[in-house]
């Protein structure tokens, strides 16, 4: 069989060349599982069977796969303007996309900087925070505060403020002048919480401890995920985010919400900031921004942050930062079509409408074999499994592989099954997801 025939069938001619990200390459290439098509709530596997997508791809396909309005918008844009630089030049669609995106943000966060991924959005937000502090005469504020178990992408800034050890240990000392809050996971007090756990607001006081340790005059910004996703669905305790906001205000520290996962309906609102009633100074985004059809990220900045940097700069370039593909024409077309689709189908409201049914299904796994915790908010679910003795992560990975073979895509992180389906799902899909998971948990040791 020649290469062209193989490629037409969606079969790769060689597995060796692609060094896969966040993957057991040796294990995958010994037993590959691949997708060749997608539509709506389902992928089609290379073997031919349908796979129900319970993860929105990688937390990113919020409006379902292969949606015609987005496909056509990208197709049309590709035939009109394949690329336009946004260094000292621009194209109209970039400004339209920024304006439309600003309308979805909390009031006052209406200055938009475009990136190409969540990782780039995080590093951009950190740099904006540092530039802001310098622009207002607070140049001693260079320290960045993250949180244990936080995931903020894979740039050096993101892994420095991040708190997942496996993402950090290979790469040396990372950025200096970084510290971390404790994480909020407290299974002893909060196991099987629906929505926000009752206990843990006091953990925000860690920031006061770091202020006392380092001095407020050294701290530029704090970055947290409102709902920590990649570490296994950690929902913020009641009052926790509000207290972080209060402490930041008291000490002149910028608050950054990493909403790469939570923005665009995942928790039933355009942002988790809106859902939880806490407005940060900067919001990072990606994933659902374009429904993952074209890579794109963004940072929404409070107008005062933007104006301080721009108005206090010398004539010329105000922020020496950017990307070749910032505001790419095809990405902008995908984003605009995605915004229209979210609105036309009331997808954010749909997430709220299904939240209770979803939560019931997540928590129906309490008492299933190996399950030690379930947690949920919006259309996000986390099912934590007891690790196998001396073999952590293996049980959840076995579920992952068996689920794929049974026609269900889940995400696993450590020994936690994480779920984040497209917002177009029906109750019948929820029933299928948790029916299959319940059956699969009985088949693993």
UniProtKB/TrEMBL annotation:
Entry-linked CDD domains: OAT_like
GO MF, one annotated term: pyridoxal phosphate binding
Highest taxon in the source lineage: Bacteria
Cofactor: pyridoxal 5'-phosphate
Pfam families xref list: Aminotran_3
Keyword set, alphabetical order: Aminotransferase, Pyridoxal phosphate, Pyruvate, Transferase
Gene Ontology annotations of biological process type: biotin biosynthetic process
Keyword Transferase among record annotations: yes
Record has Transferase as a keyword: yes
Family, per entry: Belongs to the class-III pyridoxal-phosphate-dependent aminotransferase family.
Name of the protein in its database record: Beta-alanine--pyruvate transaminase
